[in-house]
Amino acid sequence: MELDSFVYFDGLSAAGDLTMPFPDTVKYCILGISVTLLLLALGILAWQVFRCCSQKYTTYMRQDTVNNDQLYSDKKSGTARIYSGAPSTRVENVNTEVRRLSRCLSQASLPSSGSVQADGEMEEQANNTKVEGTLRFSIYYDQLQSQLVVTVLQVEGLLEQSPTRILQPFVKLRLMWSNSEEVEVEECIDEEVRDFDKFSRHSVLGEVRVPLGQLNISYPLELQEDLMIPQKDLVGKVLLSLRILPTSRRLEVGLLKVRTAHSEISSDAALYARISVQCNQSKLRYQKTSAVARCLVTVFNEVAMFSLPEFPLEQCKILVSVYEMRTAKRSPKHLIGQLTVGKEKSSEDKHWSVMMCSVRQPIAKWHGLLI
């Protein structure tokens, strides 16, 4: 019995020597490395907790700012209405991103007095070209069917023009491209937000211009743009002839040719022009040309004669409006474009000046057809 106990305790002593084979120096090194790693982990944990707390504080501050801005905008646009349509999946607000970047750049640099004045002028010019309201729409080009699909989704922020009348807006789409050498037409899609009034003419509230060449519309792309003041586009040219007869006090306006941009021209499409003259605050009776089959260059060679009031002519304006109609069936006329030539009290058109210098001689000149 005593021999067995001695062997048992000797085995325990040998096992203790095998489990700790390292000297004390190595043990202290391992302990120091462990403590260092523990402190590093605690430092990283503290840094993450600090970042989390700071992000929450910033989020709360932004949320309060957004709420204040929303309250202010609600008070400011008390009469604004939202006209919504079908929802979509992707939003890309270009104007908001541009304004955000411009604010960041302006805060990073210290402007001088000259730059502050220039910024004021640019801001005033931007205010003159901007109207209240935004338009949200989507654009998609179907390559299989070769169709451009534009979906108007929502119009918001429109201010009531009259407290007694409710706005009934509708959108008119216009696609323009550049294929002609003579007529320079920008490639853009144009959406105009109009107000429908059955008792009077429609009034244009604003427009949005989107250049398709800068967008990837192989998939449905949703945009939200601010409404701008409508601008005129060049859609063709008109060869106009002017001649003045001072003795008989007559003015001859000759419509020679009309050149329009490339488009799908129907076989039964015809063009005609309406010419009106206003001199010295006196509006003369307008005259219409005959309808001519429409082509890329439509030839009229027609002259309209107008009797002028007393001389001298302090103010005279010639307005030529070109319309399209269908000869095969009854359909409403469609305005192609207009041009204006004349003389104001302080300035006059170059064509008018040459005509006044060349009395009794017809002077022909190309004019842009705008819409």
From TrEMBL:
GO cellular component, one term: dense core granule
Segments traversing the membrane: 28-50
GO biological process: calcium ion-regulated exocytosis of neurotransmitter; synaptic vesicle endocytosis
One Gene Ontology MF term: calcium-dependent phospholipid binding
Annotated C2 domain residues: 234-367
PANTHER family (UniProt xref): C2 DOMAIN-CONTAINING PROTEIN, SYNAPTOTAGMIN
Family: Belongs to the synaptotagmin family.
Stated name of the protein: Synaptotagmin-2 isoform X2
